[in-house]
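Predict structure. Chain length: 119.
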Amino acid sequence: LLAVVLSLILFLAWSMVEQRRRNAYRRAGLLLLEEVGTTYELSVLLKRVALAVFPREEVASLHGAEWVEFLGRTCPGVDLAALVAGDGTAEIETALKEAAAYWIRNHRTEVDPLMEGSS
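Prediction complete.
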């Protein structure tokens, strides 16, 4: 019984460490989010976060409306359309920064195929 309990504790500890390691890019993204000042810088930051977990071929070439659509598809309910408005030099509004933080925390790396066709 003691061996089973000890094994369970070790497995749970390993799982927690592994989950923390897998989400390190999210923590780094949230720290860097505090430093961005323009919509262009925000878009670059979100792309860096996305490139940490999504295939480069899928993300690197995205820009404009396709980029915003990708962000919405990987985190339904988030509105980052303001990223493509203007020339990218506009200061970030609080709501946009909050939406970016929400995307960093909650995006899914595995997109439901049923959701892809719904937009």
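Summary: The first helix runs from residue 2 to 22.
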